[in-house]
């Protein structure tokens, strides 16, 4: 943590991190009930709000608490591996998660992935202990942990019918006892999600146990232009403050009337299905591509990237050799060697497969894929222990079969499926923006130059570098950056105004007038451009 203490995006929060933190501040200031239905998963900002109310708004304290949750998750996954397989597998499971770089990374940033990982480890452990001891308290714990997980990672709602079915048909208890355990699980789950559903109903007139974000997210992941990764409904509006407003505004414009939160979600869900029906072949290709993405070694970044953070952190350097592209093949081998015990393990198979399907059906981010990695860990540990035993016993024929499986799955998981340079460049750009906003202009300019060097075709990089030069009183360099941005993308809105301001500060009056005129041609209501023209004429 100390090595990443001065990472710009931890000093000046951006994107979802800023949205969660600002939301938590409002809650801790007294807005505990809120005034509208939840659009984003609410548990993480409330978790932050409790920490802020008790300890103050300290990013460092939040990171320390998340790391403690990470340590607890390591212990829990170790207990799960031990109960599912053996003491050796439990130890290897704990070790694998303890040094897994994505888990370390997500514990260290302001994102809900850390809390979601801990709750998933609690859920898995509760189910493992419920299976072996069949006690009511473990059924209640499974329900409570799943309810909390639903309020953190909405797609885990898919698991709510699986666990009761597993209790009734998978743990070998009498029918009456099974129904009692199901009731305990349901009570634990209901104690968490029913109050949230009632709260949403009181504010929006519609019951929902989680949020009303599924429709827009499904559309983002499945429209005719979808690429498999996140692209906002409106270009440049990637932040939480815009996501809900854009989804509602565009839906209401299309329908011609005001819509409730549920109607907005249904609108985008329907539009997504309409577009998939227009080109079903293209949609199937997209599903195949997203399946490759889910199993790929690469951690798709959001605003921040693990691969940028590892330049500051020694533990994250392990990501060069220990990543999902190694974990997954070991997990596949673990699934194969444990197949004879499927009657005892089928719940864990279903949890894993349903989470993979849930990620594929929407869009891919590394933190969305992280639950898949956590569910793979005990199986990867079982696979690694099995390989060690075969090597120790010199079972060369079976080792050859294992080698074929591992080689094929490793090839599948490690092929390049992303434009990694552009994603990496975007993260450098975001760090540069954060450093500039925090007042560290030399660092901001250095990072923005690095973003452009990584991916010179990124017009937004030149725009933001130009803004940083303007803030550092270098209008000549800023003008060159804005011109480069317009060469790459002439459709950029607002850049002509900024170029005009750069020309004006450089003493290039006529060029400034031309750019202000172009800015008004794009947007006749641009008051800054109008004022500038009146000033120069």
Q: Would you give an account of this structure?
A:
- Its main location: membrane.
- This is Tetratricopeptide TPR_2 repeat protein.
- GO terms for molecular function: pentosyltransferase activity.
- It is a multi-pass membrane protein.
- The protein has 537 residues and is mainly α.
- The chain has three domains: 8-210 and 297-414, no CATH class; 213-295, no CATH class; 420-536, Tetratricopeptide repeat domain (Serine Threonine Protein Phosphatase 5, Tetratricopeptide repeat), CATH 1.25.40.
- It contains 26 helices and no strands.
- The protein has helices spanning 8-11, 15-28, 43-55, 59-84, 87-98, 101-107, 113-133, 136-150, 162-170, 175-204, 214-222, 240-255, 261-278, 280-294, 306-309, 324-337, 342-361, 366-392, 396-414, 420-437, 441-454, 459-471, 475-488, 495-505, 509-522, 527-536.
- The chain starts with 7 loop residues before the first helix and ends with a helix.
């Amino acid at each position: 943590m100390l090595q990443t203490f001065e990472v710009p995006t931890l000093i000046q929060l951006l994107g979802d991190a800023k949205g969660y933190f600002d939301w938590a501040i409002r809650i801790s200031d007294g807005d505990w009930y809120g005034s509208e239905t939840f659009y984003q998963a609410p548990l993480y900002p409330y978790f932050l709000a409790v920490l802020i109310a008790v300890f103050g708004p300290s990013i460092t304290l939040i990171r320390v608490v998340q790391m403690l949750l990470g340590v607890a998750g390591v212990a829990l996954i170790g207990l799960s591996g031990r109960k599912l397989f053996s003491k050796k597998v439990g130890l290897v499971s704990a070790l694998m998660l303890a040094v897994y770089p994505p888990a370390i990374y997500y514990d260290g940033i302001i994102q809900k992935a850390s809390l979601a990982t801990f709750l998933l480890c609690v859920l898995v452990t509760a189910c493992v202990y419920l299976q072996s001891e069949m006690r009511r308290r473990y059924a209640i714990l499974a329900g409570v942990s799943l309810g909390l997980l639903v309020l953190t990672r909405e797609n885990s709602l898919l698991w709510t019918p699986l666990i009761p079915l597993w209790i009734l048909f998978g743990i070998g208890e009498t029918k009456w006892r099974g129904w009692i355990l199901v009731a305990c699980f349901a009570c634990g789950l209901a104690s968490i999600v029913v109050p949230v559903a009632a709260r949403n109903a009181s504010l929006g007139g519609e019951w929902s146990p989680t949020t009303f974000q599924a429709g827009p997210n499904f559309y983002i992941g499945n429209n005719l232009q979808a690429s498999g990764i996140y692209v906002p409904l409106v270009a440049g509006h990637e932040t939480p403050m815009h996501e809900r407003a854009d989804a509602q505004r565009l839906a209401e414009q299309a329908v011609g009337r005001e819509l409730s939160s549920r109607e907005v979600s249904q609108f985008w869900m329907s539009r997504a299905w309409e577009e998939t029906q227009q080109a079903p072949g293209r949609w199937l290709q997209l599903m195949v591509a997203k399946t490759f993405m889910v199993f790929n070694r690469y951690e798709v970044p959001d605003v921040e990237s693990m691969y940028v953070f590892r330049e500051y952190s020694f533990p994250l350097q392990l990501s060069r050799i220990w990543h999902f592209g190694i974990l997954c093949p070991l997990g596949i081998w673990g699934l194969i060697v444990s197949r004879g015990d499927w009657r005892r393990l089928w719940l864990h198979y279903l949890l894993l497969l349903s989470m993979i399907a849930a990620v594929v059906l929407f869009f891919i981010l590394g933190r969305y894929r992280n639950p898949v990695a956590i569910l793979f860990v005990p199986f990867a540990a079982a696979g690694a222990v099995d390989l060690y035993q075969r090597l120790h016993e010199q079972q060369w024929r079976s080792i050859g079969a294992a080698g074929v499986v591992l080689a094929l799955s490793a090839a599948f998981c490690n092929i390049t499926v992303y434009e990694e340079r552009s994603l990496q460049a975007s993260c450098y750009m975001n760090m540069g923006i954060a450093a500039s906003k925090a007042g560290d202009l030399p660092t901001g300019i250095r990072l923005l130059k690095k973003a452009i060097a990584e991916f010179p075709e990124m017009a937004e990089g030149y725009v933001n570098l130009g803004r940083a030069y303007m803030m550092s009183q270098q209008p000549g360099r800023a003008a060159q950056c804005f011109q480069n941005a317009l060469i790459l993308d002439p459709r950029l809105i607002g850049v002509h105004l900024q170029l005009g301001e750069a020309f004006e500060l450089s003493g290039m009056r006529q060029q400034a007038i031309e750019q202000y005129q172009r800015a008004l041609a794009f947007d006749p209501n641009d008051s800054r451009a109008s004022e500038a023209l009146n000033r120069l004429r």
